[in-house]
Amino acid sequence: MPLILTMGIHVSLAQPTRYFEFTTQCGHGNWQDTSFIAATDDPVVIDTVLTDLDKPYEERRFISGQIDYGDGGYNHNAGHWFLWHFIPGQWELTEMAIEVCDGCPYSDVDADTAYWIGVLGLFCPWSGKPSREVSAPVSVDMPGTENWIHVFPNPASDHIVIQRASFSLFTITLYNAAGQKIMNRSDFPGSELALPVLKDGLYFLYCGDGRHSSVIPIWIKN
């Protein structure tokens, strides 16, 4: 946080907490591994992340820092809430890190949280790059309510299946990482959705029914 010097006294200025979604390219094939959320009120880190968001995705740096138990009230991927979170003010973006702290947010850290927090205390997913800023408090679709949504497989290649608790018609729009619209259609949940021929990389799937909506990161791997 910035400091102001007033009559020889350093006064810390409170900064609003900002929330950023990070996407990953883990190889375990679990959709929960595709993204997570980190929070910070450090203005230097905030500026760094915002600067990276203006760069092409492949040129962005990855997150590295200390983690603790619990989701922190914000760390999730769609309806999955993680068992850990990056400690606000104790993470940054970096271009290099030790291999021992690389891993997947769900298949590795969630699967053995005690080891990652109690032994390593550090998480540096090398593919964990910032994808967007999200608002807070984070509002997500939760299993067990009428709003939850689940998309699989993720990563995908030529098709996906979208499941929702509510069996109603909804709009599906697919965007690439540059925000360009790739496809748009309406469908009912549970049906298989054929994808156009796409290059490998990150895409975003918007699903909405006029009352609720979700944006889900989708990785294409052919």
Instruction: State the share of residues found in helices, binned by percent.
Output: 10-25%
* Strand residues, percent: 35-45%
Order of helices and strands: EEEEHEEEEHHEEEEEEEEE
The strand order across the widest sheet is 14-13-16-17
Radius of gyration computed on alpha carbons:
18 Å
DSSP E strands, number: 17
Shape: globular
- Number of helical stretches of at least 4 residues: 3
Whole-number mean pLDDT: 81
User: By helix and strand content, what is the structural category?
Assistant: mainly beta
Distance between the first and last residues' Cα: 44 Å
Low-pLDDT residue spans: 1-14, 137-146
Number of domains: 2
Q: Please summarize the sheet with the most strands.
A: 4 strands, antiparallel
Tell me what the structure shows.
This protein has 222 residues and is mainly beta. It has two domains: 12-134, no CATH class; 149-220, Sandwich (Immunoglobulin-like), CATH 2.60.40.3080. 11% of the residues lie in helices and 42% in strands. The protein contains three helices and 17 strands. The chain has helices spanning 43-53, 105-110, 113-120; strands at 3-6, 9-12, 18-23, 35-40, 62-69, 76-77, 80-81, 84-94, 122-123, 129-134, 149-152, 159-164, 170-176, 181-187, 192-194, 201-208, 213-220. It has a four-stranded antiparallel sheet with strand order 14-13-16-17, with no helix packed on it. The longest helix is centred in the N-terminal third of the chain and has 11 residues, at 43-53. It is globular. Mean pLDDT is 81; it is low at 1-14 and 137-146.
